[in-house]
Amino acid sequence: MKLLLLVVLVWTASDEASAGGIMMSITFLLLLIIGTSNAQYKNVALQGRPTQSSNAGWLSTGQNAIDGNTDSLYLHGSCFSTNFELSPWWRLDLLKSYKISHILITNRGDCCETFINGAEILIGDSLANNGNNNPRCASVSSIGLGGTGTFQCNDMKGQYVNIGLPGRLGFLTFCEVQVFVSSKNIPTNNNPAQGSANANANANANANVNVNIYSRAKQQPKGQKGGSSRK
Ligand code: CA
Question: Could you give phi then psi for residue 60, rounded to 5 degrees?
Answer without folding.
Answer: -135, 40
